[in-house]
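Notebook entry, structure prediction.
Reason for the run: the old model in the group folder had no record of what sequence produced it. Starting over properly, with the input documented here first.
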Amino acid sequence: MPPEDAAAQDTPELGGFADDYNVVGGLRSHGPTQRYLARRRSDGQDVVISVARLLPDNDNNSLAHLATDAQLLRTLSHPNIARLIEGRWIGADTFATVTERYHGDTVQELLDRGNRFPNTRIAILLEDVHSALEWARQQGIIHRGVNPDEMVFERGTNRLIITLTRAPIPINGMPDATSDARSIGRLAWTLLSGKTWTPETEQSLCEFVPNLAKRVADDTMMMSRLKDGQPTPDVMGYIGVIAAGDVLKRAEIDLIALKDEVTEWRDTEFRRFERRKKELEEKARADAAALAKERDEFRKFESDERAAIVAERTELESNAARRQKRLTEVREELEAQRRLLEQRLGELETRRLEVEKVHQEALEASRAASSAIAIKPRVMTPIDRVVAVAAGPERKEFEGPRDWRGYARWLMPSITVALLMVVIALGIGLAHRTHRAPAVVTVNGSKINAAPPPGLDSGRAPRGGFLSQSAGGRIVPPTGVPVTGAPVALPSATSPAGSSAAPMPPPTPIPSDSADAVFKRDSAVAAKARADSAAEVRRRAAARRVAELRRDSIMRDSIARRNPVTRPDTARPIARDTLVRRDTIAERDTTARPDTLVRLDTAVRRDTLTGVAGLPAWRQSYAPIHSSPVITIRDAVAAEHSEIRDLTLRAYAEYAEIMEPASWRGLSQALHDALASNERAERIVADDDGRIVGSAMLYAAETDAYGAIATRLTAPEIRLVAVAPEARGRGIAKALVEECIRRAREHGAKEVGLHTSGSMRAAMNMYARLGFVRAPERDFQPPGAELVEGYRLRLG
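New structure, fully documented this time:
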């Protein structure tokens, strides 16, 4: 019979292992645990089989915990713990574990041979054991006993291999860090003394090792006598004390010698200090007298300075009171001026309303007369036409096809008369060079400008709604005679009748017939003052004729057409829901200059939105044909998510050329993740007549808008504000952000936040104009991307 089978017969409890292992023989064992050397049949590897039996008293389910530890250690590994191959129940009260056998000498074998470890070597061994126990406790291993017989120095590597053994389990809990510290202390006691620690050991370690430092001996005895439930000491600090044991012993010897030297030196120095003390006391008394004298002098100086400061303060308070009084007077004076200006504005408003009322009554009267009276249009003679041509072209709206047959009969006479007029004009010009009319005429003590300054009147009719101005600020018609009166606001084709461009009343347009009447009166006065100039008289007569022709044309237009027809290439009415900011016209306390000409088509700021969130008013006349004048801000529907995704990616595509490649890749990935995320958020879009031109997302508070790369939100967050490139410049992004702010305020939020990066300068400027401020505590740095900066807006 082979020796392996004979060994198996001697250990009947290992009969279940006979198929897999050949039992070679028994090993040195301790307590109720038996250890056997075996060899695995499959590959011939040497193993150690440990058989644990139920304890006679106070077992506390130790075998069940041992089986649990075996299951855990089969799946775990540590460089200083023996690898567990398997564990088996071989009876109701017996459990066996199979561990890999490591060839080498055990710690106990080395101690039995009389070998002693230096303190530094002991410290290294204890550090390895402590690391293994810490790891086992963190993994949930219950039995973490350490025995010198189970500690092997692996042959070839000199690595310490520990096989964890059964440990006593407290009645009221499980082994904790204090139990591991106690195991370290008892193992250290064995390594330092070379003897096995037993509970009956009460002798001090210094009795076994006389040359051991007292600090090391005391700490080792304390560690080995720890009780369950006591605070866990600093194990690494204790191991450091052992490592420094030799140094501590030498320090103790040196300390004793030094103590004797210090005692002798202390006595000598004490006597010297006594002498020095007396000298210092005498010097201190002298210094105290000098300080008392200096204190009195300083107190006197302090009182003098305090009095000077009080006097200076009184003078400053007096000056401040005088300045405050002067400021109050100036403030009252400015307030009085403000009230006067407001009163004047009120009077101007009343006057404007009266002029509008008179103008409306005149229009209604002309329309009523046109319905009852048919006025035959006046037929102009060739002379009248020549005079009109000499006076300058008149801008008139297209009145329909003309009958040119009547002009044929007058063609030759007209040409003849025109040639005569050219000759007469040349003669008048020569006469005018030699005899100029006076620039200023005095009538009844008043000075009247008789002729316009050179270069200000070109003799041509105004174009595009503009008027010429003289040096004095008065309106100059084509004839060159200044017309006095209130500022005239030219009607614009873009403003329909009855609509206003701003809350502040604009200058009231003066009817053409009233302007002609004023023009005739001024012309009569000027002609009387310059009666001695024949050329001037002819020019005044031609001007009066032109005025009559224009008045007749206005009358014909008012009779023939009730509603004026605007030119199709310039007419673009302003929508009735146009919002005009109060600060875009003029300040309430600003008085308009009498010579200021206000254009009604320039009274609206570029950033004014039509409707709720539409086009700016300045773009209504220049918007692309495919865009509507009103943009609708609404919630997106599920069918539009794909279109929103394409719009967002197209809007952010420009940053691929601005950012670094790594930063753009990070931003692109973040865009795809956010668009595909199912996180709760409101999707808001800008609808341009059925076409989505902008979008934004509003995340509620307590959501993960940015996933794992940022902290959880504590306030609503605005993300992915995007506007189609072809629709930019219309205020859509601002409208989307304002809609998000409005919704956050309706939800009761105290603030709203958003994030952007340094490459998005236009977006950062817009957020700053809306009131957002930096929130550096919300910044985060995605891997490889730009710093994402946080902003917040307080909602009052």
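Summary: The two ends are 97 Å apart (CA to CA).
The old model has been moved to the deprecated folder.
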